[in-house]
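Hey all, sorry for the wall of text incoming. These are the two entities for the joint prediction.
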Amino acid sequence: MNTRSIRFRMSIWYAGLLTVLLVLFGGFIYFALEKFLERNLSDTLAKDAQTIGESWIRDVNQSPAGYVAAEIEEHFAPSITGRFVRVTREADGNILYSSAAPESGAFDPKQIRPKRFETSQSLREEHLPGGKELLIFSLPFPDRTGTRYLIETGAPDDQVERVLRGLLISFGVALPLIVGAAIGGGYLLMRNALRPMDEIATTAERITSRNLNKRLPVIPSGDEVERLSISLNRMMERLEDAFHHIDRFSADAAHEIRTPLAIIRGELENALQLPEISVELRETIGSALEEAERLSRIVEQLLEVSRLEAGEILVERTRFDFTEMTRTTVDQMRLLAEEKNLELRFESTKPVEFDGDPLRLKQIVVNLVDNAIKYTPPGGSVSVSTFPQDGRVVLEVADTGIGVPKDATSQIFDRFFRVDKARSRQLGGTGLGLAIVKSICTAYNGSVTVRSAEGRGAIFRVELPLEKKYEMDHA
Amino acid sequence: MIRQMRLLVIEDEEKLAQVVKRALVAETFSVDVAHDGREGLDLANSYDYDLIVLDLLLPQMEGSEVLRRVRRRNPRVPVLILTARDAVADKVAHFEAGADDYLTKPFAMAELVVRVKALLRRGTLRRESVLRIDDLELDRLTQQVRRGGKRIELTPKEYGLLEYLMANSDRVLSRNMIIDHVCDQSFTGATNIVDVYVRHLRDKIGDSDQQLIRTVRGVGYFIANEEPA
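and here's what came out:
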């Protein structure tokens, strides 16, 4: 699970918020309930004390002995209900009635110390040995003769605590379940909410410089998703415009240059035909012609790159053996290597059937091998190999030459990029050889990369998918 | 004396038209020039030209339209197309529309001349089975090369190059033409392979003083049949 995804983070945030709210709510309920239950208990105790006072204590001197105790026993049955009742005469501390130990054995009434007499009613907590707590209400009550009695009613505090503990347990069980359900539900909800984003991303990924005319589907939901796809589409429109502009510009520029260039070359060539021109003039014209020819090559290749990048349809498609094509090409270039005293090796034998334009693909081999030979000093070696790998044909051209500086490896396939300007010009390149390689690779949905340690050679690697994947992309 | 051949050049760039005209006139052709499509078509219809050099991008009437209309009246006149576009699809379209050959701008005049002559079947292309220049001898049947009677071993590529040069003796062949002939188009622009081949060939046939295979700087190579001046 991606812990940095919006979906994950939103779920966690929601869960966290929900937990905090639930805990706050639970706490509130807990304390409110505690207060309520305690008040309820003390009210009951007070009412009982009042009842005892008014029913029996007021007329205690007119009642037969034991009458009060019997009445209380009958009405309240403290030992059964787990209550505590005690009536004490103020003057001599004579206990008129004291409830027996409750049947539940929750507390022992004998352990409850007698209360000092007070003039007003009070509520106290009695701590019994053994950790028991009793809530006791005391009510001073005079009979008709003015003799004062103290009526005490009590109940164990754990009645309240038991309820609260039950509540806590319910909370403890419910909270993780609720939060868990919230996380799961939130995650699913977020996934649903983000699905349109996912679709937009998938479609956007399929759009390259070669099919910029594609657009994202716009779901008329009237929300951020719709706005996102609309603004992405607008951005692509602008991109497409810019791309077309550049391509058309390159094509137009190259095109406009061709005619004057043809005139220059023609004029110069015609001049060479003139009788009696001096050797110096012949050399000068020759030099001008050489440069005109180089300019022609640049224009030619620039147009070629533009066309490939504009997605010119590769009409020619034949099935041929890539390995055999490479071998033939390497053999044709062997002379170039010998000329520089380089070893040119090609040892692959495994045939790889490929669908494409053999001339175009041959150009990849020519340009890469030519490049390797140019940048490898005499005595070095260039080795070429081809092999199939994971549904692709791989072409590797490794040399022992000057290599490519690390900061240049990404730019080396750009048009007119030169690592060492002076040196490249001296070698007579156009600065477009590798750009062409890249455009052809891209046109076949493949890639070209370079690995190099400067000064210790370079390995150019071309990978082209064997299946006709690129046609699907154009569909 | 054979009739002087008459050619029509339809090219809107006046200077380029003049350059082409001069190059062809130097080869003893008679050349008319038209500067737009309509004028070109009128001329083509009013005179029975031996060959038409046709630019594609023309005012008044597109070159392809001119070609279609010329073909309707005269299906046999060779048409060489000059184009500033060279997409493969275009090339196919040109041939389908009835062009006999095409050249992409900018081109070498030497190449234009060779192609024109090839279309007119009137070139200096030698068809003998044994080509001889000075004491260099190339036997097309046995594919053997001798110089001063001494057998020289050549690779198939070197043989092909020498045969191409000798068959077109005294005619300058541009690097492009040589690449097309000896290797294929994928080598265009990428390498100095032609120069390397020529150097090797010179070494093998003992021509290190470059008296046989001569360099025309900026244009290409030719093999000289005549005595050097």
